[in-house]
Amino acid sequence: MRLQIDGLVQRFGTATVLDGVDLSTPDVEALVFVGPSGGGKSTLLRILAGLDVPVAGSVAFEGERLPREESALRAYRRTVGTVFQSYNLFPHLSGLDNLLLPLVHVHGLTEAEARERVRGPLERFQLAEHIHKRPAELSGGQKQRVAILRALVVQPRRLFLDEPTSALDPEMTAEVLQMIGELKSTGTQFVLVTHEVGFARRVADEVAFIGDGRVLAHGTPGEVIDRCPVPRVHGFFQRILAES
Amino acid sequence: MVVSCIMPRWLAHCVVVLAFAALIGLAFARVDSTWNWQGVWAYRAKFLQGFCVTLVVSLSALVVSTLVGGLAAVMLGSRSTLLEAAGRVYVEVIRGTPLLVQLLIGFYVVASAVGLENRYVVGVLVLALFSGAYMAEIFRGGMAAIPQTQRDAARAIGLTPWQSLRLVILPQAVRHVLPAVAGQFVSLVKDSSLLSVIAVSEFTLAAQEVNSFTYSTLESYLPLAVGYLLITLPLSSLSRLLERRFKYEA
Amino acid sequence: MQGMKSFMRRVTPVLLSVILCLVSASQAPAAPPLRVGMELSYPPFEMTDAQGRPAGVSVRIAEALGRHLGRPAVIENISFDGLIPALKTGKIDCIISSMTATPERSRSIAFSEPYLKTGLALLVGGRSPVQSAADLDVAGRTIAVKKGTTGHQYASTALKHARLLVLDKESAAVLEVVQGKADVFIYDSLSVYQNHKRHADTTRALLRPFRAETWAIGLRPGDGELRDRVNGFLEAFRADGGFDRLGDEFLAEEKAFFREQGIPFYF
Known about the structure:
Oligomer: heterotrimer
CATH topology of the largest domain in chain A: Rossmann fold
CATH superfamily of the largest domain in chain A: P-loop containing nucleotide triphosphate hydrolases
Helix content of chain C: 40-55%
CATH class of the largest domain in chain A: Alpha Beta
Strand content of chain A: 15-25%
CATH topology of the largest domain in chain C: D-Maltodextrin-Binding Protein, domain 2
Number of domains of chain A: 2
Largest sheet of chain A: 6 strands, mixed
CATH architecture of the largest domain in chain C: 3-Layer(aba) Sandwich
Number of strands of chain A: 10
Strand order of the largest sheet of chain C: 4-1-5-12-6
Order of helices and strands of chain A: EEEHEEHEHHHEHEHEEHH
CATH architecture of the largest domain in chain A: 3-Layer(aba) Sandwich
Number of domains of chain C: 2
Distance between the termini of chain A: 32 Å
CATH superfamily of the largest domain in chain C: Periplasmic binding protein-like II
Shape of chain A: globular
Order of helices and strands of chain C: HEEEHEHEHEEEHEHEHEEHHH
CATH class of the largest domain in chain C: Alpha Beta
Number of strands of chain C: 12
Structural class of chain C: alpha/beta
Largest interface: A-B, 28 and 22 residues
Number of helices of chain C: 10
Strand content of chain C: 15-25%
Shape of chain C: elongated
């Protein structure tokens, strides 16, 4: 995907969360946003996913601008998939019903067609055994993987993942990251917000550092994480890598 | 080594009810008056009729109040300031005034002005409007208890607002509010006794009339208590059954 | 100065207790109060004055009875159909609430000699076709009564075809008639007269009683001695002109009107 962001501004009440974001990426498959908490990463992702409308500025994927009007945005949202940090799945439905819901009610498949479509991916990602359980009976890692699957089975143009592992313990984090890694290998495009710097380095084609509501650095993982000339960014990664 | 003895639940319930009944029985035994069950038995048709009226009125008001409460909850959450204001005024005024006052004004002033003469219909409507205000707040609370991410997830999938409500929000809200709604239903059944002030011949009024004819207060009012339990206990049991069935917490 | 203070501190509680003892001693042995039950919503017999204190004919009778018995009268405001239960369970000692001595009630409690004659009359709605008590037992008629009264008793036993509306309060029953929701309100002739005066253009009053009744003081069945003393009081009070004075004070206008109409008046 080629992403073009120009002068994006977002405010909530009196707080300015995005203060003129500019970004232009080459045609990449995996774009990762990193940066300090409160820097604006999630806010930016929500705009890219079509969930919020910015106060000013524009976003374009493949040269196609994101609409600002709600019903057009809804149509856009149907072509992409989003995974949140937690509470993605609908707790009153089984995992399987969670998967089938968007297929049947949004994309017009019959229930039989929908079941057929999810069968392969369920096997592939080893979720078939658990899929009849309610979310309350699944582990955190399983829930997130089902959430990713739900976003995947509608065959989206790209996925948006907002800190999908931040609420998980290390073991579950690993299992979810592995699934995301597999997505990469199947050619699914995604934009990921994460704190997992090691994973970002492995998986990303392009990394953007978001801080103070702006893009402070962007480029290949090596350029941003290991060798960034911007002291603020460099210092951030030094501290993180020193911890791990 | 501790040996714990756990009673089966049905047995525990029986024990508690019997103990309670024994206490009440003791209190009755100390009251120095002769029983007059025959006199009261002669009026059993009156009791039965009153019971049926209470049953029908309560159930009708139950249904209507749920609809009214749902509508008011939607208004309260609406983005239109006018609708939200209308909902808020309705809830605050109705919750803040006694049902007695609403019944008297509703029947003798408003209904007369509008030309609605049937006191049973008016009674059901006033009762439903009264309970609806409480239902609205219960529904609001239930909706607010749903995490914002659920709404986000529904939007992210591409559901329309109506689909979100129907497929995601309401099913969850219903589970949250079920206990409170059941409680409100039971209150409504008991509040229906107030309809006697506009001469609706419901169960409590029947007991009061029998009492004034036979001067046998306890014999008139005990069947009343039993009769109300016959309506409220099934409601509570049904609610608990539904809660268990639709639980999605582990 | 210090000495004075500590002396006062020690003496004051002793002083207070002595005073209290003297005060209570001067009031003991107090006669037990005579608890009189009535529903204070029936002017001019049982009502409250502007300050909210019990007032009216029955209150005066109660006070006079108390003086006669040498016991302070205490008025208990109890709703009409709760009076007999209250008497039977010992919460009150007697009922002076314009209560008719009916055979049914006599099975439950005892009554004194009657002190007042009255009867059931009709407050008729302006647009109702009812002309007399004979018109009542017709299908399609709606009869309003106050719960627990003799009007209620009469209507539920004698009127099989009419629809009965049982109201809690006199004012509600009157409202039903005024608004045309009920054809008639069966109540005692005095109240019918008073309510008709207030709603002259929406009601008619058929004041001649179609059923005579007498009011008496309600007493517990076992209380034979009290009954005798109450009857003695009533005789003395009447002989003394006590009832006439009450009639003049509270019911002057009604007395004159009824005499004019040839309807038997009360005392």
